[in-house]
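Troubleshooting: if your tokenizer reports a length mismatch, compare your output against this known-good record of 298 residues.
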Amino acid sequence: MIGFLHTRAPEGYLPYLSAFHKALGDAGFVEGRTLAVEYRWANGQYDRLPEMAADLVARKVNVLVAGGGEPSPLAAKAATSTVPIVFVMGSDPVKAGLVASYNRPGGNVTGINILTDLLEPKRLGLLHELVPQATTIGYLFNPRFASAEIQLRDVREAARALALIIRAVPVSTEQEIDRAFEMIAQERRLALAVGADPFLDTQRDRMIELAARHAVPTTYQFREHAAAGGLMSYGIDLYDVWRQVGLYTVRLLKGEKPTELPVQQPTKFELVINLKTARALGLEVPPTLLSRADEVIE
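Known-good structure output:
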């Protein structure tokens, strides 16, 4: 049995799980036939994770998959020191105390660092390239997220190098997101970068609708945002990441130990630009940026 713990909501995330299940299925582990999976989704409410993790451990799962940023694997590790854990997170697992090192994780934990924290400055640079007239960049972040402080620090450092002003806007509820976009819309020469955070990911459709309503050029971390109508995204290929998680889960189910599986990092990154949204905002995408895009949505 697999325990599946995630910070996000299942809506909008289930397509990525197809890659996870395909990797399992190719090895003969088919949910409902040769395998049971217990799912727990926190819907962006991080305080629910410890209880969910403890419940999965109590059900005697063979492997615990913990995704959606630092809070989930930390809750999983706190719940068990024996059940093998495969994590997906964007911050450094060594600094978080989850593993001893990338090559020799030690203990019962291994997984994939998807580098979302390190990509925040890159997303800021791409937004500046797309909207050079924006001298101030709003930065939407969730102060309840473990990596928020580090992300904000890196974004501010990158902004100084680009001679930009960062207006940090903390949000941790739907109402605060609504107010943030209203405030940002009142500013001139302003664009918006949305921080990498699972709670904010659960608010994808809300933020895309607000960005369109208030005509705010906004960039996000995953392809799903641009595909749903967001202006631009830059980040890892989640389908490939979850395929790798499936492969690691298979190896653990077959008896390998987490100590034998080094922590991985993605090598594939995607720049996606939604031209339809750009036109609606009255933006002309520079040819140099278009030529570097992995996907352009017309």
